[in-house]
Specification:
Blueprint lengths: L1 E10 L3 H9 L18 E2 L8 E4 L2 E9 L3 E8 L3 E12 L2 E12 L3 H27 L11 H10 L9 E3 L2 E3 L1
Antiparallel strand pairs: 1-7, 2-3, 3-4, 4-5, 5-6, 6-7, 8-9
């Protein structure tokens, strides 16, 4: 099953400012990943091509990285997720688009797990990431509330310990 999943946000910021968000991934000062409510992105070394890591049960390899512009991750796990996901910085006049693309060929059990579990969780995570990007740039976040299904999946998968949706802004938390 071929899957192409794209999320993007037009940001009132320069390409350089948006590129810094990508460059901060998995750092102590991560400006893009919504680690307040999702498993932290971690790698075996500083962000660079060849680094391996991921978040939660999702594992990947940094396949390509152009600082300030682009990062592409090749999936290693879960089994049956043959493909990649990436962030791109796209200049758009006086604004900049931050785009996240996932392309996989789902095989085996992933044909079932993608639409039922991984897709709704992925969509919620990436929308939280884009809202976190807005906050990091000093912009008002566009928050897409988690669906009841995502809330239930997070509760089940965390053994009842899942965090609530949180987007922080200047030390305050918005729900």
């Amino acid at each position: 099953m071929k899957v192409i999943n794209v999320h993007e946000r037009e940001l009132n910021a320069s390409p350089d400012a948006v590129g810094l968000l990508i460059d901060s991934l998995a750092s102590d000062n991560d400006l893009l990943w919504p680690r307040q409510a999702w498993p932290r992105m971690e790698f075996d070394r500083p962000l660079s091509a060849g680094a391996t890591g991921g978040h939660g049960p999702i594992r990947y390899l940094v396949e390509a990285y152009t600082p300030g512009w682009f990062i592409r991750f090749r999936f290693i796990k879960p089994k049956g997720f043959d493909g990649f996901h990436c962030y791109d910085v796209i200049p758009a006049g006086d604004k900049t688009t931050l785009r996240h693309t996932l392309e996989i060929q789902a095989r085996g059990m992933a044909i079932i797990s993608w639409p039922l579990v991984f897709c709704p969780m992925h969509d919620a995570l990436i929308e939280d990431s884009l809202a976190h990007a807005e906050v990091s740039l000093g912009l008002a976040p566009t928050v897409w509330p988690w669906s009841p299904w995502v809330r239930l999946l997070r509760w089940i998968l965390s053994g009842g310990k899942a965090f609530e949706q949180v987007i922080s802004k200047k030390g305050k938390q918005l729900k």
